[in-house]
Amino acid sequence: AKQAYVRAKPHLNIGTMGHVDHGKTTLTAAITKVLSERGGAKYVPFDRIDRAPEEALRGITINISHVEYETATRHYAHVDMPGHADYVKNMITGAAQLDGAILVVSALDGIMPQTREHVLLAHRVGVEHVVVALNKADGADPELADLVELELRDLLAEHGYHGVPIVRVSGLRALEGDPEWEASIVALLEAVDDTVPVPVRYTDAPFLLPVENVITVTGRGTVVTGAIERGTVKVGDTVQAVGIGEGFTAVVTGVETFGKTMERGEAGDNAALLLRGVRREQVRRGQVLAAPGSQTAHRRFTARVYLLTAAEGGRHTAVADGYRPQFFLRTADVPGRMDLALEAGPGGGTENGGPTGTGIALPGDTVEVTVELGRPVAIEAGLGFAIREGGRTVGAGTVLAALD
Ligand code: GDP
Ligand code: MG
Fold it and tell me: Among residues of the chain, what percentage have pLDDT more than 70?
């Protein structure tokens, strides 16, 4: 029989971010190793994290590793991603709903472009709490590390992160068992425990889980995984799949987290739900599983959109009516069309265009728009989304109202 998950401590979702090769995966492995020696984790070696199986669903490759561990006061699910594009996709779409982030910066290299982009991204998607792991401190000149630290404080403050703990660590040396550097990992986790508060979870709201992945387990059926956004779920509940495909309702026959059975999955948990009588092809990443009747799928909606400046990685040129980028809403990635006018706005017309009313908008502008998606997706007022084009993020938006 499977082990049962005991909810003895509050659960939080965190993850590493930072420039490629600064040591995110090494640090992730080191955390599990150091905590495994203290009874708080199962050691997950570097290769198991870095070579997580790629999931090619509908032509999108998703690459994300989850590990779990416990400190004295918390249970953490921790995500690590190999590539910059994976961060953008998973963070902006909310697939990785981080309550806090560990920004990994190599003390040997200092701030690099993806360091800046991930700080900007974290701020844009609402990650409020950051702890810095100033990594590779084993090989760094302490005075150089002091300089990197000063520059980091400036960068973080520019994005509204003040009083961020910066802990000097060596993931590699901790992984090798050096007691001094093992202690640095413990200090880092203490900083995370102290800095990232337990978030408010909407456990009383109707159940909602954006589908991240679908797998078939031989002899058991179809398993859907994702982070529970709101509400709770238990065996025997009926859930409704909304968006992308045709949709269906099904009874939940199993709830698990990290291979352990759960009596009740709650908002904030990474859950795997076993669904009765559902074929794998019926479920798609981008759908949501929801309490029946609580969510509806829409192709059209109005929104307020911020277009990133070129310096933020956005476009260099204006967008016009009929602009056709890719829209990322929760775990959904769908093509669509954007018009720089608010349909059925207070004036009833479409005169409400860009800030200048010209039907074009420039990088740096905030505009009200009407979006038509290529496929219906669960939409509600207040939902955040990203606009991407050619592999980069060019805009961030919030839904004002669902149309049809
Ligand atoms: P990621 O791309 O951010 O996940 O970086 P990796 O974890 O794959 O590490 C990149 C390289 O940096 C590897 O060769 C690691 O062995 C090395 N590395 C990682 N952490 C440390 C550290 O603390 N000290 C030293 N000296 N090297 C490290
Ligand atoms: Mg890595």
Answer: 90
* First vs last C-alpha separation in the chain: 47
Residues 27, 29: Cα–Cα separation, whole Å: 5
Residue 63: CB atoms within 10 Å: 19
Split at pLDDT 50, 70, 90, the class of 364 is confident
Edge-to-edge strand ranges of the sheet holding 75-80 = 65-70, 75-80, 11-17, 100-106, 130-135, 166-168
Q: Which atom from ligand 1 is nearest to the alpha carbon of 104? A: 3
Ligand 2 geometric centre to CA of 225 (Å): 22
Contact residues of ligand 1, CB 6 A cut-off: 20-26, 104, 135-136, 138-139, 170-172
Pairing mode, strands 65-70 and 75-80: antiparallel
Give the C-alpha separation, 388 to 277, whole Å. Answer: 36
* Ligand 1 atom 24: residue of nearest CA: 136
Residue 112 CA to residue 230 CA, distance in Å, equals 36
C-alpha to C-alpha distance for 338 and 332, rounded to whole angstroms: 17
pLDDT at 12 over 80: yes
Closest atom of ligand 1 to 28 CA is 7
Which of the pair, 110 or 314, is modelled with greater confidence?
A: 110
The catalytic residues are: 21, 24-25, 84
